[in-house]
C-alpha cells in the first residue's frame, strides 16, 4: 500500500503545528487509498544542518548521528504532506534543516502542502514548492491554506473552517495519485 508521511513543520515548544498535523491525519485516516503516518520532525532532534558533505554527494553516508534515523524514516514513504506555519514569510528553520539533511530519500516522491499564517501561509507554500524542487519532490497543485485569524482562536487553538476538509481531501487525492505514479520512476 502507498505510504504517505504527514510531516510537521515546526519544532517550537509553543507550536500549534502538531494540532494541525493531527487534524490532517484524522481526515486522512478516514480514507482507504493509502496508509498515513504522522511524523513529528521535533522527535528526531536534528541539529542545525552542518553535514561536511552535501547530501546530494554523500550517498547516504551522513556524519550527523541524528540524520540516519531521519533518513530511514523518510525512505519509508511514497509521498508526503508538509504541514507548516509561515514564519517571517517563509519556511521555519527546523523544517528547512530537516529537508536539507537528505537528498535521495526525497527523490521522485509527491507532496502536498498544508499551511497557515497571517496571510494564509501562501508565501511559505510558494517557498516550500521551490525548496522541494531541488530534491526532486513533485508538489501537487492543490494546497490547503489557513488563516491565523479565522482558523485559530487567539492564534493558539486550532478551529478549522469546515470547507478546509474538502480542500484537504482534494489535495490528498492528488498526492496519492502522484505518489502511485512516481513509484515507477523510483524503480
Short précis:
The chain has helices at 17-28, 55-58, 67-75, 93-100, 122-133, 163-186, and strands at 3-8, 35-39, 79-85, 109-117, 137-139, 144-147, 152-153, 157-158.
Task: Give the uncertain stretches in residue-range form.
Answer: none
Q: List SSEs in N-to-C order.
A: EHEHHEHEHEEEEH
Number of strands: 8
* Distance between the amino and carboxyl termini: 15 Å
Structural summary, described in words:
The chain is α/β, with parallel strands linked by helices and 187 residues long. The chain has helices at residues 17-28, 55-58, 67-75, 93-100, 122-133, 163-186; strands at 3-8, 35-39, 79-85, 109-117, 137-139, 144-147, 152-153, 157-158. Strands 1, 2, 3, 4, 5 and 6 form a six-stranded parallel sheet that branches. The chain is globular, with a radius of gyration of 16 Å. It starts with a strand and ends with a helix.
What's the arrangement of secondary structure elements?
Elements: E1 3-8, H1 17-28, E2 35-39, H2 55-58, H3 67-75, E3 79-85, H4 93-100, E4 109-117, H5 122-133, E5 137-139, E6 144-147, E7 152-153, E8 157-158, H6 163-186
Parallel strand pairs: 1-2, 1-3, 3-4, 4-5, 4-6
Antiparallel strand pairs: 7-8
